[in-house]
Amino acid sequence: MEYYVQVSSGDTYGPASEEAIKAWLEEGRIARGDQLIASVGGWRGTVNDLVPAIPAPPPVSAAVVPPAIVAPVVPPVEEVAPPPPVSLEPVTPPVVPPQVAAPSVSAPAPIAPPEGPASAAPAAKKKVPEWVGVLGALGVVGLGFAIYWFAFRKGPEPAAPAVTVASSPSATPSGTPVDSNEERLAKEEISNLKQLNVGIQMYLADNDDTMPLLNWDSAVMPYVKNSTFLYSVHPNGGKIAFTEGFAGMSVTAIEQPANTILLTDPNTWFGTQKIVSRVDSSTKLVTPEEYASMMSITDAAVKLNAPNYERIRRGDAAPPTPTPTTTPTPTPSATPSPTATPNPSPPAMGDAKGGGTASSGMMSIDVEGQPILYPSGWSRSDDLNSEGGAFTTFKSPDGKASFVVERIVGEKDPVSMMKSEEARLKKLAVRKYEAVFFRTGAEAYRNGIIWNFKVTIDGVRRKRTVVYFNHNGTFWALSSSVVESSGTNPPFTEMFDVVKTW
Q1: Which of 89, 108, 117, 276 has minimal CB crowding within 10 Å?
Q2: CA angle (449 as vertex; 443, 454 as ends), nearest 5
Q3: Are 177 and 183 in contact (CB under 8 A)?
Q4: How far from the centroid of its chain's Cα atoms is residue 5's Cα?
Q5: Which helix (H) or strand (E) holds 138?
Q6: Distance of CA 359 to the CA centre of its chain
Q7: DSSP β-bridge partners for residue 166
Q8: Distance between CA 170 and CA 159 in Å, rounded?
Q9: Is the dihedral of CA 29, 35, 39, 43 positive or negative?
Q10: What angle in degrees, to the nearest 10, is found between the helix axes of 180-206 and 216-224?
């Protein structure tokens, strides 16, 4: 039978035969109170239980044995003077418990080889697991690093932006999302939109290629069978939107299905790109420029279905739009485009006091016949910007929130205006404010783009929302700004409603 010996220092030696344990006891390497564990059967006891008749080792042996022999790290055997041999003749036979009555003597104890002193066995046995443990730890670390590298560091890192971003990932306007989490979310969102689009295609096949009505999600769900696909996976996302202007329309009447948006999440941008699912069943990430172009093509297709859509919206019977026999040219807007540069003088905006109260605690201002609401008690000022465009500013009594209506001269493209404003704010942040600037998302409607961002000005963190859009040939900007920690709520909802109705 072989045993493991656990000494008072916590180190464990073995397995060792009964003869080796006797030798260690005589040489002072182990004590009678040290723990013994049988290698077979699980017997536990002390050295004294196994060898009760052996007297305590003579002091001279203990004095000869250096303390370092019992330490976890033992110097090479050849560097330690061997202790004087101790005769075993006077030792009486030990009283062996029944479960260990037949110790194995056929296999020599690896701790005490015949050619060397038994004192070297514990150290030689201990070196092997230490090296194995070190090599195993290095292997685990290397494997973890390799998994992290291949899973999260695919592709080259993007170039650093012009402004140092402290905590949020950044991306170029035309590039792909650079944050690995954004990439993962984008892939999941694309997969979900593909599933929804497949459901719509199956619905079309069962309904004579006619688009679902306003309850499109209920109509498609029997084909998709998973309501989670109806919502964006992005933390800032919302419900997936169907181009409801196609309600009841024959899909064969759509001229450019590969460039016509069928499904998207209007609230979410992945990095600087948006995911769109198109009428031809394809789904992809697109840049702001591509998105604006697709929105224009989608608008043209929606106009073909306008009479049919209005009947459906009123609840009247709505036959599908007939398939055109020739390729139609998208009908331009009924509102004629201006033939000259818009008048840079301030627009005829309603007086803050005379505009009328739209609801309790709210005042109304008219911009070309469109009402814009703002809280009563806010101050108002009219001025011209540096390009000669008129703007009106409303401010809360505490000055922490503001709302601006501005007519812009010299710009017609909302996307270009958004990029110019981003570049301007970045320059200001570096030169004047020493601020961190980053985009948090954008949202597009048919007549413009809503742009959300945060900026720190003079040490004050602000949230801003800007809407750029064309109305009757005039380029406008509506913007709201609020101190992030103030809790003041500027009229974002009213601003969005204006964009939807213009």
Answers
A1: 89
A2: 65
A3: yes
A4: 53
A5: helix 121-152
A6: 41
A7: none
A8: 10
A9: positive
A10: 100
Give residue-wise pLDDT tens across range 129-139: 576 777 788 88
**CATH architecture of structural domain 362-501:** 3-Layer(aba) Sandwich (3.40)
Please state the three-class secondary structure of 241-293 as a single string. EECHHHCCCEHHHCCCHHHCEEEECCCCCECCEEEEEECCCCEEEECHHHHHH
pLDDT in tens, 421-461: 777 766 665 544 444 544 445 554 445 566 666 777 666 77
Do 401 and 395 touch, CB atoms closer than 8 A?
Answer: yes
Is the pTM for the entire model greater than 0.85?
A: no
Helix (H) or strand (E) holding 48: helix 47-50
The arithmetic mean of pLDDT across residues 386-391, rounded, is 65
CB contact set of 55 (below 8 Å; sequence gap of 6+): none
Dihedral sign of CA atoms 120, 126, 130, 133 in order? positive
In the predicted structure, residue 368 carries a pLDDT above the cut 70 = no
- Does residue 110 contact residue 88 with C-beta atoms inside 8 Å? no
At residue 348, the pLDDT reads: 35
